[in-house]
Each structure stands twice: as C-alpha cells, then as structure tokens.
Amino acid sequence: MEWSEMLPELLDVLAHKHIVFYEDYPSFAGVCKSWHKAALQTSKGNNGPPSRLPSLMLSEKKGYSEFRDLFLLSNDTIRKIRLPEAYGKLCMSSCGWLVTVGDDHASQLVNPLSREIINLPKIDTFPRFLETCNWDYGIRKLVFLAPSSLVVVLWGCSGKLGFCRIGESKWTPVEKGWRSCIYDITYYNGRIYSFDGQCHIQACDVHGKDPVLVDVERLPVDLYDYNRQDIGGAYIIGLDDGERKTLLVVIREGMFDDVDDDLCEETYKTKSFQVFEYDLASEKWSKVKDLGGKTLFVGYSSSFWVEDTAKVIKGNCIYFTDDVFVLYRGSKNGGGRDMGIYHLCDGTIEPHFAGRSSSDLSPPIWLQSI
C-alpha cells in the first residue's frame, strides 16, 4: 500500500502521535497531500502544538487584532497564531500561559496554543489599587502554579506580592514582611522566592493560610556593591545542580542617556549582566562565571532556564528582552528595543531577533515551551 493510500482515520492517529512539536509539521506534511491534510487537522480549533524550544511573542501590530507572531528560536522563523484574546491588553507569561489585563481591570489566564481561557479576579480587587495605580501597571511579573491552581504575581507600582486561586473573586496581597519594590519572583523548592530593590532574597509559603515574606539572605556588598552600580533590573531563578539546590540572582546593568520628559524620548541599553549563586543548604554566595550548557531567559514577564542538548540555543548565555517599563511607558518609541543575547564568557551582546517589534504596553516576551 502506498503512503498516500492510507486510511484517513489511521493518518489522523499517526499525526496526533508524531506531531508533538510545531517543528514536526514540515516533515509529516511533506510526505503527500493526504498527509498534509492530516497534519492540518491536528490543529483544528486551536493553534497547534508547542515549539520545541522557547519562542519570543512579538508585540501586537496596529490594526492586526486577530493574530500574533511568535519568533521561533528553534529555526529563526515566524509562526503566526490566532490570539484575539490578547489584543490591546497587557500580557505576561509563565510556563507557556499568558495572563492578560485589560483597561476594564479584567484579568485572564490564556493558553496561547489551545486558546483555553480562565477568568481571574479583576486587578482592582487589590486593596487601594485605584488610588495608586493605572490598569497598565497592574501586573508586572507572573508565576502560574498549574497543579495547585495558583497564580502568583507582582502587582502595582510598588512591586508587591499577591496571589489568587482559580475561581476566587479577588486577589490576596502579601504585605507582611515586604521591604521594598520586588524585582522578580520564582517558584522553587515549594516556595515563592523574591529579589528586591535592597538586594534581599525573601521567601513566601503561598500555600499557607497567612502567607508572609521572610528574609532569606542579602547579596553581600563585598560581592556586589549595589550602591555604586546602575542596576537596570534583576531576576531570580531556581536551579537544580545535581544534588545542590541553588538560587541564581541575575543583575542587569544598564546604560541610560538623558531623558527628555516633555518629548518622551530616551536612549537606553543593557551594558552587562552579573550572575550570583546562593546555595540554600550551605547558605553561601558565589559569583557565577560559567553556566555550562545552561541558558537563562530573563526580561519583562517570567524568568527561567533551559539546557538544549541540540545546541540550537547558545549555552552559557543570557537571552534578554526589554524590561525598562518605567521609561518606555508613554514613549513614542515603545519598549522592545533593548533585546539580545549576552555571552557570559566574554561580555559580548548579539541580537536574537533581527527585526523590529515595539510597544509601550506589551513589548516582546518569552513564551516557554509547554
């Protein structure tokens, strides 16, 4: 029997079994017309399977409300997905999901591939939100804990911790123990860890009845003198290194030109990154000079790491997106101009996306492979 003569029912089973990643489409669909048709059927009603590696969700285009472009790091191509649910909204990502916030204060979890939508509480249910914040500053960082139906966020202009469980009608703030504006959060080893503007690591058990931020450790000034540095942002990522459990703190050092507030014009760019490791068992800090085959992804939205054995993603590097929202909000140029790949070995920076994609609301963000 010829390949083209296989029963449609059998081809459907084969397509669903073998098209695990988006990159599998060309080889399957290229066999013949009947196989191409079966491949198309696998994504009927949704946007198809995930990419093999992280992708960059580009900013929305004006008048282009139905679709969004994903830049695939796996093969440097653009994948178009249907995502009208995100149009005109603030977007963050975590574990392959999006959280969107609209000007009506409504927030939703959106799976950009299956297009499943889960309603979350309105962001104005945070206490005193309307007195201190606009809707487009509502959520800045996100951690989605799917097994426990928990969404943890950094909210408001002050960078505080908050959370909700799916189905609840309001967000719960975590204000006990808060020191200063939190840069970033991560879920690791059963707890939420944060890194703040005073270079403190704090931890929070969001599964408990009365969550509170507790001090873990502060980045020593003899290791990094943050009083003398121009910190353009900071990130925290949990990392299993064999039997050791560690937290990586990634500090982004920026270079800023004068800002003209009247014209909303500015020039800024990332100059360098420094990476520090905190061992949870020994309670000791060290500077990281080599990530081995691991790669860090940081920027606006969530932070994470991958290890690509196929070497498509460059190891010992930091892939970053624009994160200076205090400058690009209201700017005529928008955010999305300060992106690239930082090589930890020699401090050089190269682009990961050669095109232009900017927005003063939702600049490009990383989308993890689900």
Overall mean pLDDT stands at: 86
Q: CATH topology of the largest domain, what is it called?
A: Neuraminidase
CATH architecture of the largest domain: 6 Propeller
> In CATH's first tier, which class of the largest domain applies?
Mainly Beta
Structural topology:
Layout: H1 8-18, H2 25-29, H3 33-41, E1 55-57, E2 67-72, E3 77-82, E4 90-94, E5 97-101, E6 107-110, E7 117-120, H4 129-132, E8 139-145, E9 150-155, E10 160-165, E11 172-174, E12 182-188, E13 191-196, E14 200-204, E15 214-218, E16 231-241, E17 244-256, E18 268-279, E19 284-288, E20 294-298, E21 304-307, E22 317-320, H5 325-328, E23 340-343, E24 349-350, E25 365-367
Parallel strand pairs: 20-22
Antiparallel strand pairs: 1-2, 1-25, 2-3, 4-5, 5-6, 6-7, 8-9, 9-10, 10-11, 12-13, 13-14, 14-15, 16-17, 17-18, 18-19, 20-21, 22-23, 23-24
Summarize the structure in words.
This is KIB1-4 beta-propeller domain-containing protein. Residues 71-342 form the KIB1-4 beta-propeller domain. The radius of gyration is 21 Å and the shape is globular. With 370 residues, it is mainly beta. The chain is built from 5 helices and 25 strands. Strands 21-20-22-23-24 form a 5-stranded mixed beta sheet, with no helix packed on it. A 4-stranded antiparallel beta sheet has the order 3-2-1-25, with no helix packed on it. It has a 4-stranded antiparallel beta sheet with strand order 4-5-6-7, with no helix packed on it. The mean pLDDT is 86.
